[in-house]
Amino acid sequence: MTATATSNTKPADRPNRPSGAARLGQWAMNNGALVGLILLCLALFIATPDFLKLDNLVNIGIQASVVAIMAFGMTFVIVTAGIDLSVGAVAALGAMVSAYSFSTLGLPGILTLFIGLLIGALAGAISGLSIAYGKLPAFIATLAMMSVARGLTLVISDGTPIPTSGSVSLLGSSIGAFPVPIIAMVIAGLLCWFVLSRTVLGRSMYAIGGNEEAARLSGLPVKRILVTVYALAGLFAGLAGMVLAGRLSSAGPQAGVGYELDAIAAVVIGGASLSGGSGRATGTLVGAILLAVIRNGLNLLNVSSFWQQVVIGLVIALAVGFDVLRRKTAR
Question: Which regions span the lipid bilayer (predicted)?
């Protein structure tokens, strides 16, 4: 009689799944800006209960809107491993041309709104052409555009603010209980998300940022894509400038000064890498809101504006350091 052999063979080992704590840690690592925003809000609520009042939260959203809209356009640029130092000046130029078209040329208000957007896109496209076809470094090309745009703004305005049209002023007002700047920010964010995650253009941006030469060899029209990217950044900057002008009911010659740095900071804080290939619309939104929360909280705590700049600089440095750490961990 043949003995039946009993098998001690164990089922094939299943791959070890990370524990709940490990998954939570990985999520926190990938969403560091959001975690920081939540912790900061809790800390500010403890320090000053006025922080979480509805009026203050709405004010934070309005304050974040201009930088966020500008930063969504900057996200496209940084994803492709570029940089755009001109967005603050382009925002001012778009708003100024729009206001001049209305107050001096007498064009209809709705038309002047589209003119401001067109000026922004045109300025961005010129920067893109200089970079893609003129082979200028993005830093130099956009620095030159920043100077040109700021100079043209001063020439057109003669150094004085110009009233905006009703269509532009609407961008700074409210529709019922809903502030239009926040609505514009949400629409711009959805558009940024859609382009990056649902279009061939968005996938091409990531490919160029990951390895431009490989993208070119794979058949992507890299030069045309880069021109489109900078034109989109200019378009978003033009919208941001008119939202800012709408809040003030006038276009100022010095509007948008320093906003390009806040836009870059929002994108980097949101998890994008300055070396390209990564970046999300949601992360950029969180980064812009985080900057607004910091400024709002420090104002509530009566902290000097000088020290606020120090804090913002430290936050940017920490964000870049966190990104370096996250990439090393991923390897």
Answer: 27-48, 60-78, 85-103, 109-129, 136-156, 176-196, 225-245, 306-325
Instruction: With beta carbons less than 8 A apart as the criterion, state whether 264 and 76 touch.
Output: no
Residue 93 lies inside a defined structural domain of this protein: yes
Give domain status of residue 160, yes or no.
yes
Q: Which of 282, 316, 326, 321 is nearest to 34 (CA)?
A: 282
What whole-number distance in Å separates Cα of residue 108 and Cα of residue 111?
A: 5
Q: Which domain holds residue 295?
A: 51-330
| Overall number of domains in the chain | 1
Nearest to 237 by CA among 192, 291, 173: 192
Distance CA 321, CA 275 (A): 13
Q: Is residue 74 part of a domain?
A: yes
Q: How far is CA 29 from CA 32, 75, 177, 182, 209, in A?
A: 5, 20, 36, 28, 22
CB under 8 Å to 137, separation ≥6 — which residues?
131
Domain containing 279 — which CATH number?
1.10.3470
| Assigned domain for 7 exists | no
Q: Number of C-alpha atoms within 13 angstroms, CB side, residue 36?
A: 22
pLDDT in tens, 242-267: 999 999 999 999 999 989 999 999 99
Residue 212 Cα to chain centre, angstroms: 22
DSSP string of 69-116, one letter each residue? HHHHHHHHHHHTT---S-HHHHHHHHHHHHHHHHHTS---HHHHHHHH
Q: Which residues contact 182 (CB under 8 A, 6 or more apart)?
A: 58, 61, 62, 65
The position carrying tokens 């996938």 is 203
Per-residue pLDDT tens for 20-51?
666 766 666 667 788 888 998 999 999 988 89
Quick one: tokens of 94?
Answer: 């778009």
